[in-house]
């Protein structure tokens, strides 16, 4: 049973109560999005997700997409849902007013994205990719391209894709072969084959705007010879309507483990007309504008699936009767007690709950920084926010998707054998969530990005944007009557993180394999310390609310229990990651290849 109600109260908590002291609040341009408007938007989005997107989640998984006569059709109900999505203005929620959007802050937009990904991850990919393509186009496109394409993408009439991967290159894009030949009129003819392209073709929009990585004839080898091109499926006529087919289309759809209602296409570009976006040979940098946005978005996908997995597991745990409670019968009129009475089932539910609330709190912090990096009034705040977002982007991508997948697996476990059976609906979560750990740069690559690029960047400046508030908070609250004990635990984990950072800096300098061997463990430790910090702050807010008296006692008490569970059960395990980091690369790299 797939059960979902948007967690609006917790979203409001992390948006309005948790991070007010982070220094990222004084931004320009979002004055219209006060608490009432924010709540109204969250409620409307929650309604759309529950009533329109959720009912076609499982059926979409069962039906999948079809390629017939060169065109992909999405499962039943998707076209209508997309129409409602666009009519409600959701496609342009975070887009600048200049292009017809509503200019909502990222902090709010990410919450809506979380809901979409909970209710229907496959559906969420279509507008999600369009949003990412718009970001890249807005940052690097010519005025002409922007004026022509962005308004139609902002209202959802046209969608976007990112076309990087080829059969022989995924992580190592330096090997890509797609070519772009310059034409006299300033355009280019793009030729090559791409694989695994999300939303590469579908029937939701009248045109599709592909952002394609390709090489110019004289391009240097490797990543320094890649340029980015905008290649529409249909060449627009002068009136802006889709005209002639641009020989850019799907040759097959991939048959995959999950995410079946999202059309993942093999694509052929056969002398397709395109226009350069950004500078020659700087396409990968331009594409990274999109990929960084997408990496945070993919992290949110993990959180979204984790939330619906949790809610569906709670529903079942209250309904399924098996065994009796060890502390005495709880359901005397029934043949057995509901499985939610059993400590092991509680362990699973509380783990999922803590992951979701921790990730949501961290996502709100990061997306507030994302807003501040563009729109803070003070230049130093913009800089600090940029550093913080750079540091946290790989963490959000990898940690949230790992935890989202773990939550989906736990939901299957809560359902027992029924969870393994398709009709339960929960095995879909585990299949859908799995890809988020792989695409947009695998989680292993995110960890290398964190350790290899983000840590050393400008002598550790990125890291300071995170370490400073955490150490200040620990110092200020070490003897706090309410949260002093939690802060003591946070300090221990933070200490392990600092030692790990020193270890990587020292050993990695002499031997990069040492840093690489520590990278995934380090990312997880850093992510858990960040969640621990958010949770300790949440406890502070909750204690204050309970002390002053509130009609929402249940919410704040539950928050304190979840926080305590995180500190008792989850943070210590992540802190032990330090032991793995310290052990170095030896046992990982020693075995000769032929012994495998
Ligand atoms: C459903 C789906 C949708 C997708 N959507 C898109 C899309 O819209 N656009 C697009 O362009 N691509 C898309 N992709 C492709 C996706 O981004 C790639 O699959 C991913 O980047 C990994 O590339 P690969 O599959 O070639 O794996 P490989 O690069 O072959 O990697 C295999 C393994 O080796 C590891 N590895 C590789 N290099 C290193 C290294 N230097 N150090 C350490 N470990 C390394 C990886 O972490 C991984 O575990 C999609 C893929 C799928 C399955």
From TrEMBL:
UniProt keyword terms in alphabetical order: FAD, Flavoprotein, Oxidoreductase
Domain Acyl-CoA dehydrogenase/oxidase C-terminal: 281-450
Highest taxon listed in the record's lineage: Bacteria
Record-linked InterPro entries: Acyl-CoA_dh-like_C_dom, Acyl-CoA_Oxase/DH_mid-dom, Acyl-CoA_Oxase/DH_mid-dom_sf, AcylCo_DH-like_C, AcylCo_DH/oxidase_C, AcylCoA_DH/ox_N, AcylCoA_DH/ox_N_sf, AcylCoA_DH/oxidase_NM_dom_sf
Ranges of residues in domain Acyl-CoA dehydrogenase/oxidase N-terminal: 79-157
Required cofactor names: FAD
Domain Acyl-CoA oxidase/dehydrogenase middle: start-end pairs: 162-270
Pfam family, one: Acyl-CoA_dh_1
Domain Acetyl-CoA dehydrogenase-like C-terminal: 466-592
UniProt xrefs under PANTHER family: ACYL-COA DEHYDROGENASE, BROAD-SPECIFICITY LINEAR ACYL-COA DEHYDROGENASE FADE5
Similarity annotation: Belongs to the acyl-CoA dehydrogenase family.
Protein name as annotated: Acyl-CoA dehydrogenase C-terminal domain-containing protein
Species per Swiss-Prot/TrEMBL record: Aurantiacibacter flavus
Record lineage: Bacteria, Pseudomonadati, Pseudomonadota, Alphaproteobacteria, Sphingomonadales
């Amino acid at each position: 049973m797939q059960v979902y109600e948007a967690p609006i109260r917790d979203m409001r908590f992390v948006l309005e109560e948790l991070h007010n002291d982070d220094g990222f609040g004084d931004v320009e341009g979002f004055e219209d999005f006060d608490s009432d408007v924010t709540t109204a938007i969250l409620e409307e989005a929650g309604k759309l997700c529950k009533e329109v997107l959720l009912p076609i989640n499982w059926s979409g998984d069962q039906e999948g997409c079809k390629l017939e006569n060169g065109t992909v059709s999405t499962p039943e109900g998707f076209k209508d849902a997309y129409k409602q999505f666009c009519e409600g203005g959701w496609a342009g929620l975070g887009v600048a007013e200049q292009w017809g959007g509503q200019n909502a802050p990222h902090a709010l937009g990410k919450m809506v994205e979380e809901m979409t990904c909970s209710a229907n991850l496959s559906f969420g990919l279509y507008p999600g990719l369009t949003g990412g393509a718009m970001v890249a186009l807005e940052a690097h496109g010519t005025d002409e391209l922007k004026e022509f394409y962005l308004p139609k993408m902002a209202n959802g009439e046209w969608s976007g894709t990112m076309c990087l991967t080829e059969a022989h290159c995924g992580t190592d894009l330096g090997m890509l072969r797609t070519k772009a030949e310059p034409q006299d009129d300033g355009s280019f003819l793009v030729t090559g084959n791409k694989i695994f392209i999300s939303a590469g073709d579908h029937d939701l929009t009248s045109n599709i705007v592909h952002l394609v990585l390709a090489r110019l004839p004289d391009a240097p080898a490797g990543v320094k010879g890649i340029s980015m091109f905008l290649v529409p499926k249909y060449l627009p006529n002068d009136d802006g309507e889709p005209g002639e087919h641009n020989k850019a289309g799907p040759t097959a759809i991939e048959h995959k483990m999950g995410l079946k209602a999202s059309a993942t296409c093999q694509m052929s570009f056969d002398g397709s007309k395109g226009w350069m976006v950004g500078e020659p040979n700087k396409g990968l940098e331009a594409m990274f504008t999109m990929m960084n946005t997408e990496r945070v978005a993919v992290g949110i996908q993990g959180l979204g699936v984790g939330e619906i997995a949790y809610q569906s597991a709670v529903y079942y745990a209250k309904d399924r009767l098996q065994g009796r409670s060890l502390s005495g019968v709880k359901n005397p009129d029934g043949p057995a007690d509901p499985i939610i009475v059993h400590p092991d089932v509680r362990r699973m539910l509380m783990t999922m709950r803590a992951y979701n609330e921790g990730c949501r709190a961290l996502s709100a912090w990061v997306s507030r920084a994302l807003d501040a990096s563009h729109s803070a009034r003070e230049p130093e705040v913009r800089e600090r926010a940029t550093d913080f977002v750079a540091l946290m982007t790989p963490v959000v991508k990898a940690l949230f998707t790992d935890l989202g997948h773990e939550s989906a697996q736990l939901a299957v476990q809560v359902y027992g054998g029924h969870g393994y059976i398709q009709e339960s609906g929960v095995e879909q979560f585990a299949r859908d969530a799995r890809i988020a750990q792989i695409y947009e740069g695998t989680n292993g690559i995110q960890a290398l990005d964190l350790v290899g690029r983000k840590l050393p960047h400008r002598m550790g400046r990125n890291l300071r944007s995170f370490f400073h508030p955490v150490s200040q908070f620990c110092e200020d609250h070490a003897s706090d009557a309410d949260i002093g004990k939690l802060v003591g635990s946070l300090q221990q984990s933070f200490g392990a993180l600092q030692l790990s950072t020193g270890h990587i800096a020292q050993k990695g300098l002499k031997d990069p394999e040492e840093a690489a061997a520590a990278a995934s463990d380090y990312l997880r430790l850093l992510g858990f310390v960040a969640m621990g910090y958010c949770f300790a702050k949440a406890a502070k807010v909750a204690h204050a609310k309970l002390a002053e008296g509130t009609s929402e006692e249940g919410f704040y008490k539950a928050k304190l229990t979840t926080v305590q569970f995180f500190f008792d059960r989850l943070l210590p395990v992540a802190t032990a990651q330090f032991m793995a980091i310290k052990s170095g690369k030896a046992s990982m790299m020693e075995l000769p290849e032929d012994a495998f």
